[in-house]
Specification:
Oligomer: single chain
Number of strands: 13
Radius of gyration: 22 Å
CATH architecture: Alpha-Beta Barrel
Mean pLDDT: 90
Bound molecules: ligand V47, iron/sulfur cluster
Strand order of the largest sheet: 5-6-7-8-9
Number of domains: 1
CATH superfamily: Aldolase class I
Helix content: 40-55%
Order of helices and strands: HHHHEEHEHEHHEHHEHEHEHHEEEHEEH
Structural class: alpha/beta
Strand content: 5-15%
CATH class: Alpha Beta
Length: about 400
């Protein structure tokens, strides 16, 4: 047998150069990002992404306690990846909450240590600007310290257009009513070639970015997502990341990037095979390496499973979404790993600690609420993190 094995990087000078850039904290360009998607091995991506992650946060791993409020699971739009869009044909089988219904849900969390409500759902005409002003101000009147992270440019674009008000005016009204930050939803894939096919009719990529820009200019913070693993190419993913990185250079208003893996249950793209775990980890890693101006990369654990969330912490992720009752239906209907996605704080803290990281409970704006590094739970006393191997004499 000939011994012609050469270490990976020596075989590929370009990968060596890109790695050198990452280790010297220099930005990689779009061609380099596509090259990483096409050529880099999983271990190399892990090393590079972990370098960036640890330079920013060391072992710190964030989570917060939030709950979801979904005004409706029916939607006017017909995004081909979404399991809600099919419900418009059978509207009576869905729910359409009134303001009172939603306040009852908010009140059901009274006395529970949640810090954030994440409001997201389908788009329907009755949910107009005045409706959401009413909802946000009612939440704030009831529980002023609850952070309202609500709606996406998809809803804002629709309602402001219908109500004939500009984005600037509309976002100002929302802020006055109690809106605290914007979640990352509705971004999907910005490139029109793909967006028109999977999310035709709803706000364009430019409109999505413009609403976030206006919000940032008003001093607000927001998140961004990317829906991957369907009909997009690596170039489309990099184009999406590029537009986010450019806007972040301009405003600095994004906090967190959340890659969302396409799930194929009960939607118009059910014929597509979902991408596998390796692709998920590669995508987290390249997002972490490319988005050098984003502080955080988040894994949405109910979507990808607890084990993959744990692995993602070695591939650039420093934040795992949500604890206690994670009540969103948008993923469970699309075939997410966790059909009943609830995890106690203790479970989530242990999930993070068992892969050697340091759990930090945060609020929405990443202020530390509690450092759980030293906390000892009952279950830990019996738990042995590694298998004890027999000692050889
Ligand atoms: O925009 C819909 C996605 C998003 C499917 O900001 C699907 O903290 C996969 O953006 N397969 C809404 N994804 C949720 C969202 C989010 C989630 C967690 C945290 C934050 C945050 C934001 O859900 C939609 C769409 O991209 N989605 N259907 C599906 N079949
Ligand atoms: Fe409606 Fe959003 Fe689903 Fe598109 S992704 S159909 S806008 S709920």
């Amino acid at each position: 047998m000939s011994n012609n094995y050469q270490p990976h990087l020596e075989n590929d000078k370009r990968l060596a150069q890109i790695s050198q850039k990452v280790f010297s904290s220099n930005r990689i360009d779009n061609e380099e990002a596509v090259y990483l998607f096409e050529k880099a091995s999983l271990p190399l991506l892990g090393i590079l992404a972990n370098f960036v992650r640890e330079a920013k946060h060391g072992d710190l791993t964030y989570f917060n306690r939030n709950f979801h409020l979904e005004p409706t699971n029916v939607c006017l739009y017909t995004c081909t990846f979404c399991s809600y869009s099919r419900l418009i044909k059978k509207r009576s089988e869905g729910w359409e909450y009134t303001l009172e219904d939603m306040m009852d849900i908010v009140k059901s969390y009274d006395g529970k240590p949640v810090t954030e409500v994440h409001i997201v759902g389908g788009v329907l005409p009755q949910y107009d600007t005045a409706f959401y002003q009413g909802l946000f101000s009612a939440i704030k009147a009831h529980r002023p310290d609850l952070h309202v992270k609500a709606l996406t440019p998809v809803e804002y674009h629709y309602m402001f257009k219908k109500d004939k008000i500009s984005y600037e005016e509309g976002m100002k009204l929302m802020k006055e009513a109690g809106l605290d930050s914007l979640p990352g939803g509705g971004a999907e894939i910005f490139h029109p070639e793909i967006r028109d096919k999977i999310a035709g009719g709803k706000c364009s990529g430019d409109q999505w970015l413009r609403i976030h820009e206006i919000w940032h200019e008003m001093g607000g913070k927001s998140n961004a997502t990317m829906l991957y693993g369907h009909i997009e190419t690596y170039e489309h993913r990099v184009h999406h990341l590029d537009l986010l990185r450019q806007l972040q250079d301009k405003t600095g208003g994004f906090q967190t990037f959340i890659p969302l893996k396409f799930r194929n249950k009960d939607n118009e793209m059910s014929h597509l095979t979902e991408v596998n775990l390796v692709e998920d980890l590669r995508n987290y890693a390249i997002s972490r390496i490319y988005l050098d101006n984003f502080d955080h990369i988040k894994a949405y654990w109910p979507m990808i499973s607890r084990e993959v969330a744990q692995m993602s912490l070695s591939f650039g992720v420093d934040d795992v979404d949500g604890t206690i009752d994670d009540t969103t239906k948008i993923y469970t209907m699309a075939g997410a790993e966790e059909q009943n996605p609830a995890m106690s704080t203790e479970d989530l803290v242990n999930l993070i600690r068992r892969v050697g990281r340091r759990p930090i409970e945060r609020d929405t704006l990443y202020n530390t609420i509690k450092d759980y590094s030293e906390e000892v739970f009952e279950a830990d006393i019996a738990f042995k993190p590694y298998i004890e191997l027999p000692v050889m004499n």
